[in-house]
Design goal:
alpha+beta, Alpha-Beta Plaits, disordered C terminus, 2 domains, 5-stranded mixed β-sheet, 7 helices
Length: 236
Amino acid sequence: MDIQQSIIGLAEHDPAVAAFLRQVVAERLLVNLRWWTKVRMPRYDTLTGVYSREELDGILFDETARASRYQRSLSVVMLDINGLKPFNDTYGHQAGDELLRTAAAIFVTGMRNSDSVIRYGGDEFVVIMPETGRRGAIAAANRLGTSIDSYPFDGAHRITLAAGTATYNPRRKQPATPHELLGRADTAMYAAKKLSHDRGSSVTCAYESLHCPAHAGNGAGSAAVPYLNLASRRNL
């Protein structure tokens, strides 16, 4: 006999007790639902619809553990949208929000279903790419840069993308932790951000490379970039 049948049977003898039990069961179900929503269900960024910052640690930990166990490559791409602040100052935050939604849609459609796009905060996003080596991550980041450079965003301000990539090496088991992998991608992204600002076009930097493979938009092709020893920027 299930709970509902028990309550129905009890209602015939003591309606007040049955009503109380119904309330207790309803409250318990609500508590369980809230727990499931908070702990088990993925959380999404309300503005852009991609994974929220709260999901980053769990996804990155799981993918790093999987890459280590099965000896597979894993890459992380940090993305920063350049030009959002002056865009907001000129056209308002509602227009800036629409720009972020559009950029997030470009990121999602430009990646594989197995990749995870996460809003890190503000104008920064993270893409976690399982089964992807350094060259694949650079190529993917460059594709996103091309898409951002060529998209007709409203307004006169130039919108570009700074992308930093970092790749887990399964043979060396480096970097040793998910946090370190993300930190390397962040370091490369900041190097790309400076170059992107100087050039006025999207740029990708790989942490493992001795140079920054640059992407120059609007059909300009790749351009030579000054030597950047990214590894020396952090004590990793």
